[in-house]
Write a structure and sequence with these properties.
alpha/beta; Rossmann fold; Four Helix Bundle (Hemerythrin (Met), subunit A); five-stranded parallel β-sheet; four-stranded antiparallel β-sheet; binds adenosine monophosphate; binds zinc ion; ligase; protein biosynthesis; nucleotide-binding
Length: 471
């Protein structure tokens, strides 16, 4: 069974052919740990998590490596502005090391809530300085670097086809990244490999290097660490689309110049999450975190469900109304599944060939460049299909949930129930309608669904009321 992915380099959907059959080496750019991740960042990590789990579902053995940027990332993705870690330290009156530790932990707490699996290798930039120095040395030996005002720069004009990933002209790239005129650079798109302390005199994170004490540029960490852990040919490299014109373009220039051959076989980029009213910006401090949406009555998995309803290559517009709709349909879906589980009887049939049909249907969708909306349609078909036994349905749903990670088979938490009066009213309305039409089985089904949400229905002459059980 072939797996198809959209490759940002070829700009086509491609059949995945891995370096080693049956295995995937996957590198994803990790967070810059100077602040909380916003829900846009988290959308990208959800996409990468689903990619990994989809590959695994279809039989691949995946090795996933992700970096933690705890040094070297300046305010702009090019080389301008202040160091993000130092900015965080100043803002909170802490050391850069404390900031890095705190926000790395916060990031993984968010991931845990969102059921984003921890990568096989998580590598911190500050723990791989020597690997970066070695790579810069290699580039220097091969003539791709120059020193200007104490810093080591990468000379993009030495690298053939620098613009191939972005597919833009040099002028368009310059305009897009709004590079400032920097008299140290031969070409405005040249970028720093190593900053000596001529850049920031009081930089706290500093290491010795052949070029003087200082710290690495941002892009070199991903080249150095991905090659270290995944070898010279990487199957899939991911990130958000903002990384195409600068970060990934520069990663390619560094890695391919050093290695002397093609480095990544498939580039996959997640589109942005945008707010109803515009862009989210960390620097302005007005960004939405997972904790904020939790404070507003949502569960992390409501957000995961919301992300999975659209394709990763499409922009996703966030609003609380849209999240509420997602929460409602997620709960409806779960209560349907719970009622299947609860009504499963011991002696029900379990026919492998019937399971196989839907197992393959689901796989067909996820290996079509992660067609998650269609994968959910397959899940609905399973739920509705009267020819499948409840036992067979449960087996399938449990398998699908290995990719979706929505705790589809787990009981509702008590807290989930109280907030959702709108959904309960909707279900009651539907039940009344069913009763009017003498559709007793649907009416019973709804009573059952509500039961699993811990809601008891009381029918009387005055109408139908409901209450939370055990209260
Ligand atoms: P950063 O911590 O800024 O390096 O970003 C972490 C990841 O989030 C990167 O893969 C970015 O490309 C991605 N990203 C940044 N903003 C958004 C957004 N609004 N929506 C989706 N992904 C984003
Ligand atoms: Zn990177």
């Amino acid at each position: 069974m072939d797996f198809f992915v959209y490759d940002s380099m070829s700009k086509n959907k491609e059949k995945l052919v891995t370096v080693e059959p049956g295995k995937v080496g996957m590198y994803t750019c990790g967070p810059t740990v100077y602040n909380y991740a916003h829900i846009g960042n988290l959308r990208t990590y959800v996409f990468e998590d689903v990619l990994k789990k989809s590959l695994r579902y279809t039989g691949y053995d995946v090795k996933h490596v992700m970096n933690i940027t705890d040094v070297g990332h300046l305010q702009s993705d090019a080389d301008e502005g202040e160091d993000k870690m130092e900015l965080g330290a100043k803002r909170e009156n802490k050391t850069v090391w404390e900031i890095a530790k705190f926000y790395e932990d916060a990031f993984f707490e968010d991931c845990e809530k969102l059921k984003i699996e921890r990568p096989n290798v998580v590598c911190r930039a500050t723990e791989h300085i020597q690997d970066m120095i070695n790579l810069i040395k290699k580039l220097e030996e091969k003539g791709y670097t120059y020193i200007s005002n104490g810093n080591v720069y990468y000379e993009i004009d030495k690298f053939e086809d620098y613009t191939k990933l972005a597919n833009l002209s040099i002028e368009e790239l310059e305009a897009g990244s709004r590079v400032e005129v920097d008299s140290n650079k031969k070409n405005p798109l040249d970028f720093v490999l190593w900053f000596t302390n001529s850049k920031f005199k009081n930089q706290i994170m500093q290491w010795d290097s052949p070029w003087g004490r200082g710290f690495p540029g941002w892009h070199i960490e991903c080249s150095a660490m991905s090659i270290k852990y995944l070898g010279e040919r990487i199957d899939i490299h991911c990130g958000g689309i903002d990384h195409i014109p600068v970060h990934h373009t520069n990663e390619i220039a560094q890695s391919e110049a050093a290695l002397g051959h093609r480095w990544v076989n498939y580039w996959m980029h997640g589109e942005f999450l945008v707010l109803d009213g515009g862009k989210m910006s960390k620097s302005k401090g007005d960004f939405l975190t997972l904790s904020k949406i939790e404070e507003n009555g949502f569960d992390a998995l409501d957000y995961r469900y919301f992300c999975l309803q659209s394709r990763y290559r499409k922009q996703l517009i966030f609003s609380y109304e849209a999240l509420k709709d997602a929460q409602n349909s997620y709960r409806k879906l779960k209560s349907k599944i719970l009622s299947i589980i609860h009504s499963t009887k011991k002696d029900e049939s379990l026919v492998e060939s019937r399971i196989e049909v839907y197992r393959n249907k689901f796989a067909e969708q996820i290996r079509d460049d992660l067609n998650m909306p269609n994968a959910f349609t397959v899940l609905s078909e399973v739920i509705k299909n009267n020819e499948l036994s409840n036992k067979e349905k449960s087996v399938l749903i449990e398998e699908f949930d290995k990719v979706l990670s929505l705790e589809l088979m787990e009981e509702f938490k008590k807290d989930d129930i109280e907030v959702d009066e709108k959904l309960i009213d909707k279900l009651l309305e539907e039940r009344n309608h069913a009763r009017k039409n003498k559709n007793w089985s649907r009416a019973d089904e709804i009573r059952d669904e509500l039961e699993h949400m811990n809601i008891e229905i009381i029918d009387s002459k005055e109408g139908t009321k409901w209450k939370i059980k055990n209260k």
